[in-house]
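Dear colleagues,

As part of the handover before I leave the project, I'm documenting each prediction I ran so the next person doesn't have to rerun anything. This entry is a single chain, and its sequence is reproduced below.
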Amino acid sequence: MLGCFWMGVNQTVFCTVKGLVRDRDRFLALELDLGSNKVWDLPGGKVRYREDPLVALKREVLEETGLEVSVGRLLGTWYFFRQGDRNQVVATLFDCGVACRNLVVRQTHHGSETFSQFKWVTKDEFLSDDFVVSHPSLKQLIAGLDWGS
């Protein structure tokens, strides 16, 4: 099940869709500015009520980056806790391709999120200590991916 929302006493779990937007042996990473901290993330976001999760992923990637993507296979999930309200976010990751090789990311602000930078990275670069992520489960997922396909 891709869509979920659970709310308990002062606890909420949000489900999101994220894209591993690949161009050859690299993928797009976004540095999210959280005020006192910065973490690296992948493009994507929340699924709206009654929205198809794959449509949501295409919409979110386009809004955040200006890129139109094709959504491929399901790659896995990871989770993190938001800094401000400590709500949990469960992210479902899909493989995504882009039609154009000359890529220009056009936005640095999306809703309440501000992206410090966008970077095309290799798997090894992303797994290095230079890339701080919101939760180790994201790097565990990326580390386990088969890059042969």
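Strands lie at 5-8, 11-23, 26-33, 38-41, 44-46, 69-81, 88-98, 109-110, 113-121. The helical segments are 53-65, 123-127, 136-143.

All the best with the project,
I.
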